């Protein structure tokens, strides 16, 4: 409960207007998750500013606001009047104000503060300690995993005067943060769960991370207590260094080293183990809980030791521990499809927690069942990432029967698992949650006895692996209650980790959907080859390849050998057809890669045969017929030459003639006359081959346009490209309803400035301001594929409105006029392709403005623009 008087005293804030309410249930900094009667705190963050949502918060029932004075100056008179209708506290900096309030309220009410820190297990330990103490004492606990300099003060908005204990979780993702937290809360009791690799992208080494965790120990008062994990060598070293000084803080080992690991019982019903007797009894004491996994031995033991030290009796603590249950997202057992059992461990992932999850999966498997691990990426590991992934892959080979991996970096886990003896057919690399769940469905539907298979789902927070859990639950309607990150706010959040403030978002789910729509159009008997030329038309070839293969495609197509090589290096072993020219000096490499090549001359066929013989391998080939496109291929009127090539290729050692194909020049036109002429020419070639018994088993001709509008051209296989990405082949041939665009192109505003009338904008002074103009600078230019000339994009989207580009586009930047769009600030999202609010700027519209086609628009977004999904 927040009392206005205490808030004002602590923050030195002022009231705007009248005091309409003096008590609030708590703080909230997310208008989407705000509860009625809470005070909304407008916080400026790295990716947004809460001041943009103060009126949304009022609409959702906020009865108070905490805002910054400088933002008041930007508000119109009518908006200021609206703020006068609600209790509004004005401060210089809302973050500092929250911290001042937290420090003041702890000093005012003086609960005994127990701080829990460590690499992993902090939240479970904090909850266990608080749950047990709450049996006898009024106990406050920090909200979920709100554990930083913003989260702790937000949580303390619910602290009450009667609370005797405050159990607070402390996190750190950069040097100095733990010290700042300890200075803020002044703990009397410290608990350090472990020192395992987390957030090493900022700390660099585990030694520096250990130094950071040591701040908790050094912050404790002389009469304080420090509980340590006595099996963690880094913690023991930390304590040894501490004890060399003149300190009186009581150091208390947990006694983990005394636990007989062989007698720890791990089961679906929970965890049980014995600890040595204490001063009240010499006989061993049994601790049992409903927690899952032997790593929770430490959780239970910490809770037992702390509660006993705080005055609770042995019987009280033992009874309270029995009621401890798994938390959401932390090895929570769920009922899965096909009577399987799920271990939802999707809250977050670090190397230690991933290893613990795999061990638990292995221990809980019923006889006759299969172990499936679905793992997302582990993030923020810095230079430790490779080593960590190798450890996880090696253990996965021992503890799983099937391994499903989502995310590019998880290929390292796959490679480590293979080296440890796991077969390639037991490992699947995917790029979407849907594909991960679908593969698990297939395995569960065919493997083992019903009710005996177990699935572990785990990944870092940003990977949102709970979406996989939801798809595998026997009752997905219970996801809202049982899974983490199910609030409206989280449902709307897309976590982006980009290398630049200009990026491309790729909706791989849309690509999967579009492949399935193609499958519906062509039917089950026709194979699908997906064109991945030009890095999948700018969408990212590796991720797109995995997605399309899991959604109905059986072959991939690329333009060059280097494009095929990149796919093979990424572990993609599906058939790949190279459409383009392969010089003789690349043929051995092509054979070695196991790709399929395009042939259109006898000389190339002979050279390829020599390369195959030299490597003692065979290579599949497709014959290319030019029916009127004028590109690669033997002209269709030279029928005898085509037949001769097929005959020779069939007889050459090392060559396997698998297919024959052509390409349409105008299948995307409304008038199909020329396309049908080409089709007739191609069919004549096929008939001639048929008469001689030479027709290859795979015949294909249809690109996206023909796939959608010329069903007689489907033959044995179709080759869609642009349609797979949700884009129209042309204005005359559009993708049907149900297809979805996959690509959005975005940037952020780098600066906003007022430029006087008569001033030059950009190179050449081609644009002169006619009046005072609010100009926003964008960090995107023609070196990103954002066209400069002879035409440019014309407009972009800001705050759901079109803003015109002014002046020439530079190599890395451009300028837009935002005079007509209020409250535009540095960091605001700008959409170059995609949707913002109710307004959409499509690739097709951009192509019209540039005088080109949508293919070029998306394919020309350069590789230096990071792709995120």
UniProtKB/TrEMBL annotation:
<dbReference type="InterPro" id="IPR035911">
    <property type="entry name" value="MurE/MurF_N"/>
</dbReference>
<dbReference type="GO" id="GO:0008360">
    <property type="term" value="P:regulation of cell shape"/>
</dbReference>
<feature type="active site" description="Proton acceptor; specific for D-alanine">
    <location>
        <position position="533"/>
    </location>
</feature>
<keyword id="KW-0067">ATP-binding</keyword>
<keyword id="KW-0663">Pyridoxal phosphate</keyword>
<dbReference type="Pfam" id="PF01168">
    <property type="entry name" value="Ala_racemase_N"/>
</dbReference>
<keyword id="KW-0963">Cytoplasm</keyword>
<keyword id="KW-0573">Peptidoglycan synthesis</keyword>
<dbReference type="InterPro" id="IPR000713">
    <property type="entry name" value="Mur_ligase_N"/>
</dbReference>
<keyword id="KW-0133">Cell shape</keyword>
<dbReference type="InterPro" id="IPR004101">
    <property type="entry name" value="Mur_ligase_C"/>
</dbReference>
<dbReference type="InterPro" id="IPR001608">
    <property type="entry name" value="Ala_racemase_N"/>
</dbReference>
<comment type="function">
    <text>Involved in cell wall formation. Catalyzes the final step in the synthesis of UDP-N-acetylmuramoyl-pentapeptide, the precursor of murein.</text>
</comment>
<dbReference type="GO" id="GO:0005524">
    <property type="term" value="F:ATP binding"/>
</dbReference>
<dbReference type="GO" id="GO:0030632">
    <property type="term" value="P:D-alanine biosynthetic process"/>
</dbReference>
<feature type="modified residue" description="N6-(pyridoxal phosphate)lysine">
    <location>
        <position position="533"/>
    </location>
</feature>
<comment type="pathway">
    <text>Amino-acid biosynthesis; D-alanine biosynthesis; D-alanine from L-alanine: step 1/1.</text>
</comment>
<feature type="active site" description="Proton acceptor; specific for L-alanine">
    <location>
        <position position="763"/>
    </location>
</feature>
<dbReference type="GO" id="GO:0009252">
    <property type="term" value="P:peptidoglycan biosynthetic process"/>
</dbReference>
<keyword id="KW-0547">Nucleotide-binding</keyword>
<comment type="similarity">
    <text>Belongs to the MurCDEF family. MurF subfamily.</text>
</comment>
<dbReference type="GO" id="GO:0008784">
    <property type="term" value="F:alanine racemase activity"/>
</dbReference>
<dbReference type="InterPro" id="IPR013221">
    <property type="entry name" value="Mur_ligase_cen"/>
</dbReference>
<comment type="pathway">
    <text>Cell wall biogenesis; peptidoglycan biosynthesis.</text>
</comment>
<keyword id="KW-0132">Cell division</keyword>
<dbReference type="GO" id="GO:0051301">
    <property type="term" value="P:cell division"/>
</dbReference>
<keyword id="KW-0961">Cell wall biogenesis/degradation</keyword>
<dbReference type="InterPro" id="IPR011079">
    <property type="entry name" value="Ala_racemase_C"/>
</dbReference>
<keyword id="KW-0413">Isomerase</keyword>
<dbReference type="Pfam" id="PF02875">
    <property type="entry name" value="Mur_ligase_C"/>
</dbReference>
<dbReference type="GO" id="GO:0005829">
    <property type="term" value="C:cytosol"/>
</dbReference>
<comment type="function">
    <text>Catalyzes the interconversion of L-alanine and D-alanine. May also act on other amino acids.</text>
</comment>
<dbReference type="GO" id="GO:0047480">
    <property type="term" value="F:UDP-N-acetylmuramoyl-tripeptide-D-alanyl-D-alanine ligase activity"/>
</dbReference>
<dbReference type="Pfam" id="PF01225">
    <property type="entry name" value="Mur_ligase"/>
</dbReference>
<feature type="binding site">
    <location>
        <position position="631"/>
    </location>
    <ligand>
        <name>substrate</name>
    </ligand>
</feature>
<dbReference type="GO" id="GO:0071555">
    <property type="term" value="P:cell wall organization"/>
</dbReference>
<dbReference type="InterPro" id="IPR029066">
    <property type="entry name" value="PLP-binding_barrel"/>
</dbReference>
<dbReference type="InterPro" id="IPR036565">
    <property type="entry name" value="Mur-like_cat_sf"/>
</dbReference>
<dbReference type="Pfam" id="PF00842">
    <property type="entry name" value="Ala_racemase_C"/>
</dbReference>
<keyword id="KW-0436">Ligase</keyword>
<dbReference type="Pfam" id="PF08245">
    <property type="entry name" value="Mur_ligase_M"/>
</dbReference>
<keyword id="KW-0131">Cell cycle</keyword>
